[in-house]
């Protein structure tokens, strides 16, 4: 009875390990986050390249490899150039995924609402009508809550952006009423996304303009330590350093931030699935079965892809959050630092593009809903 539970824990060990990344990062800094992330990649990939003849031994080999890495491997084993390149990769892909994730979230919601409408047209189901009404009401309630929070604690710049957001919301609802295929919950969810983006920008700029104090443990830990000994170092840290580190960790544990983790993971897996399907259909025309595509190449059923995506998402979101908690943005790096003194401190350009992008996508999707859509959004 206990043996299957142990095997289950070993299978999910990467997911349990990645949860420790924010803890190590809050006490020891962003550099350690990147190093642990690369060690996780090595551990995951090593577990997948075991020969098929040894698959019965995989759980034991996996656990032994994990124990060796955690207890013996020093975190500075990863060369600095690799850390630098990995950090820049996270920075470059961040804005792209930021825009993609919100578009895919709206796309997913519109597909669900269309399926609900189809069911209503088939059998006039009152249950689906009630779901649409309740979902729309929930979106408007959350939107009102975010609007009140922005109005109560925002700056003058945020008030001006709030007017822009209200104009976008009116435009979205106007397009919804004009379209024959417009659905209320789609417009409500799009407006909620727009307002939540403004709310996220307000929270981020507040954090950037009022950075947290950096714990002394960020500069005191020995990079020659393994993760096990770093854990004991964290456990023995001073009260002052622990208090500052917990401040970083609490930023990570905010419900709104945890929700964005799920949205980011969905967008990464969606992109991987779309790329894999496109590659298979272009290079192997004999394998055009939907069943084959669903069972063989979807990342939702691939342990390797899922684990790598979770590690990448966790690393990217955690490192970005901790950079913001230190007041570090892209404007601190050349050549963007030349315009830092002229750039409004309460605006994040990527968030503005995200707001405009999600509204443009909704209008485009609304006008193309009954047409043959691109494979990326079907």
Automatic annotation (TrEMBL):
Domain of life (superkingdom): Eukaryota
**TM segment ranges:** 15-45, 57-77, 89-108, 128-151, 157-176, 183-201, 227-249, 256-276, 347-364
Keyword set for this entry? Membrane, Transmembrane, Transmembrane helix
Q: What is this protein called?
A: Uncharacterized protein
């Amino acid at each position: 009875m206990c043996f299957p539970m142990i095997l289950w824990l070993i299978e999910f060990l990467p997911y349990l390990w990645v949860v420790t990344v924010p803890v190590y990062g809050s006490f020891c800094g962003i550099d350690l986050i990147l190093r642990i992330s690369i060690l996780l990649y090595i551990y995951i990939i090593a577990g997948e390249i075991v020969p098929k003849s040894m698959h019965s031994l995989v759980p034991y080999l996996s656990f032994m490899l994990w124990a060796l890495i955690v207890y013996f491997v020093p975190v500075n084993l990863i060369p600095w150039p690799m850390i630098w390149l990995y950090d820049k990769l996270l920075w470059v892909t961040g804005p792209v995924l930021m825009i993609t994730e919100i578009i895919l979230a709206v796309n997913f919601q519109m597909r669900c609402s269309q399926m609900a409408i189809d069911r209503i047209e088939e059998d006039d189901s009152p249950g689906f009508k009630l779901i649409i009404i309740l979902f729309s009401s929930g979106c408007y309630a959350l939107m009102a809550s975010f609007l009140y929070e922005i109005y109560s604690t925002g700056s003058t710049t945020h008030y001006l952006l709030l007017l822009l957001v209200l104009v976008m919301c009116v435009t979205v609802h106007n397009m919804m009423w004009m379209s024959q295929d417009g659905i209320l919950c789609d417009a409500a969810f799009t407006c909620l996304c727009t307002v939540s983006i403004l709310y996220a920008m307000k929270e981020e700029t507040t954090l950037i303009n009022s950075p947290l104090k950096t714990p002394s443990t960020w500069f005191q830990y020995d990079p020659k330590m393994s993760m096990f000994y770093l854990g004991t170092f964290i456990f023995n840290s001073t009260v002052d350093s622990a208090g500052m580190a917990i401040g970083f960790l609490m930023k990570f544990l905010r419900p709104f931030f945890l929700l964005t983790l799920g949205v980011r993971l969905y967008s990464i897996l969606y992109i991987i699935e779309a790329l894999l399907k496109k590659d298979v259909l272009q290079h192997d025309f004999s394998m055009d079965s939907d069943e084959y595509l669903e069972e063989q190449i979807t990342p939702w059923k691939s342990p390797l892809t899922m684990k790598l995506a979770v590690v990448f998402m966790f690393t990217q979101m955690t490192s970005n959050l901790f950079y913001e908690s230190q007041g570090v943005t892209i404007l601190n790096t050349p050549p963007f630092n030349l315009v830092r003194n002229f750039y409004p401190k309460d605006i994040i350009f990527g968030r503005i593009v995200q707001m405009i992008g999600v509204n443009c996508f909704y209008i485009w999707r609304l006008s193309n809903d009954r047409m043959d859509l691109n494979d990326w959004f079907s």
